[in-house]
């Protein structure tokens, strides 16, 4: 208890945190703050306290999931906002970091797990994306866009922001009717169908998720465009042919750092000489790091969020141009707030699908992701590549004009 008191007194300055220990002792940390409010926790046993002290990033969610750390005032998002608002990335604080043993173990674990070979990729994808369709229906927008939305106004609805995201990306692709597009990591098919409808292109969407493939194909059939928008269960490394455009949204996080060069070499091979590629990915503002133990174990095994330096270093080995880079800072925080609110509203339905432990896991995942974009070092990056310096206009005006047209 004494060690946890020391840790929390160092970590909490604004807002109030009340902690009740197994023996009934209560400690309070921080100062009143109208914006952050008050959160109250209770530990059910001393083992839960030791788990948190060993590595707060994985011990805390595990104890919460297992019902050994109870939130008695506020909810999991309130707790994580309180903790991380006191330790913002911009302020250079590291009060919430694991101890030296925990950090050493995390780096060793990451080195072992990062080799996302072909045989592991499908299993890793299935771990997350082959969950029940009903789960995703409960918190995603109607088009099932499971990536950062684009908020032209923070007050926009999730549906509007996801539509605007597709317009934002489509404008950067600079497509013309009749072109062919490869969608790497096509999800449930929403972007592929959008590009065909709005721009008159033919699209091949590829995924490693059998559940996503079923839905995407059914959507194309229902829309009567299955001959123009096709979906295949295939690893990007096994795709053949050439394409005018390549788009990849929320897939690059699953490539794995040892395979960045392989990814870009394959995309360069698949892209026509005057082709354009757009990658939309979560990114790190603080340089290369490791995937936190909680995310690697429970959410995205084999996943890694790339730093810009890692992406550009690998892409520079190809004979092409990085023609545009954009950093979306708060857009994913706004997106995740919508997802979290919808999951909380769907508590009973999610417990019926799985159980209370899964519900706690999912709320921690979404709340933890939310605060990582709100106060941490995570952002979203969009990279545009072209093989020919003359393939696109020399100013960004064409993007703005096309996006306005699509949104209009």
Shape designation = elongated
Shape-level CATH architecture of the largest domain = 3-Layer(aba) Sandwich
Strand composition percent: 15-25%
Strands of the widest sheet, in order across it, are 7-6-5-8-9-11-10
Output the number of helix runs: 17
Oligomer: single chain
CATH topology of the largest domain: Rossmann fold
How would you name the CATH homologous superfamily of the largest domain?
Answer: Vaccinia Virus protein VP39
Compute the separation of the termini in Å: 58 Å
- Average pLDDT for all residues: 91
Helix content: 40-55%
Q: What's the domain count?
A: 2
CA-atom Rg in angstroms: 22 Å
Q: How many strands appear in the DSSP assignment?
A: 11
Largest sheet: 7 strands, mixed
List the helices and strands and how they pair.
Layout: H1 2-11, E1 15-20, E2 26-31, E3 38-43, H2 46-54, H3 56-65, E4 69-73, H4 76-85, H5 100-113, H6 118-129, H7 133-139, H8 158-173, E5 180-184, H9 190-199, E6 202-207, H10 210-223, E7 229-233, E8 243-249, H11 260-270, E9 271-284, H12 293-299, H13 308-315, E10 321-328, H14 331-345, H15 347-353, H16 356-374, E11 378-386, H17 397-407
Parallel strand pairs: 1-3, 5-6, 5-8, 6-7, 8-9
Antiparallel strand pairs: 1-2, 3-4, 9-11, 10-11
Helix pairs in contact: 2-3, 3-16, 4-16, 8-17, 11-13, 14-16
């Amino acid at each position: 208890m004494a060690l946890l008191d020391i840790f929390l007194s160092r970590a909490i300055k604004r807002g109030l945190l009340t902690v009740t220990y197994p023996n009934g002792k209560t400690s309070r940390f921080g100062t009143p703050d109208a914006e952050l409010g008050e959160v109250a926790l209770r530990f059910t046993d001393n083992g839960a306290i030791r788990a948190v002290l060993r590595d707060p990033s994985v011990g805390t969610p595990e104890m919460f999931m297992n019902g050994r750390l109870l939130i008695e005032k506020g909810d999991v998002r309130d707790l994580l906002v309180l903790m991380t608002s006191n330790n913002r990335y911009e302020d250079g604080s590291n009060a919430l970091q694991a101890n030296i043993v925990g950090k050493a173990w995390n780096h060793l674990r990451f080195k072992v797990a990062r080799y996302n070979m072909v045989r592991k990729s499908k299993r890793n994808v299935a771990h997350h994306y082959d969950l029940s369709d009903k789960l995703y229906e409960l918190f995603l927008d109607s088009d099932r866009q499971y990536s950062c939305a684009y908020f032209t106004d923070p007050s926009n609805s999730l549906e509007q922001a996801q539509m605007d995201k597709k317009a934002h990306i489509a404008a950067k692709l600079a497509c013309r009717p009749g072109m062919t597009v490869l969608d790497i990591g096509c999800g449930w098919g929403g972007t592929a169908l959008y590009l065909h409808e709005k721009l008159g292109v033919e699209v091949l969407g590829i995924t490693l998720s059998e559940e996503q493939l079923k839905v995407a194909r059914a959507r194309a059939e229902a829309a009567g465009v299955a001959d123009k928008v096709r979906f295949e269960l295939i690893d990007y490394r096994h795709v053949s042919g050439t394409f005018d455009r390549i788009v990849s949204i929320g897939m690059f996080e699953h490539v794995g750092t040892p395979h960045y060069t392989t990814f870009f070499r394959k995309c360069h091979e698949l892209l026509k000489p005057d082709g354009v590629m757009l990658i939309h990915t979560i990114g790190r503002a603080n340089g290369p790091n490791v995937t936190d133990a909680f995310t690697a174990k429970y959410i995205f095994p084999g996943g890694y969020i790339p730093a810009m330096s890692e992406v550009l270093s690998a892409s520079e080995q190809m004979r092409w141009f990085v023609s545009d880079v954009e950093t979306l800072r708060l857009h994913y925080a706004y997106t995740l707030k919508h997802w979290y609110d919808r999951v909380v509203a769907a508590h009973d339905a999610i417990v019926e699908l799985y159980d209370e432990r899964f519900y706690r896991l999912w709320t921690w995942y979404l709340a933890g992701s939310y605060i990582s974009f709100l106060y941490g070092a995570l952002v979203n990056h969009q990279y545009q590549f072209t093989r020919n310096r003359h393939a696109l206009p020399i100013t960004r005006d064409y993007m703005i004009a096309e996006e306005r047209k699509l949104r209009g």
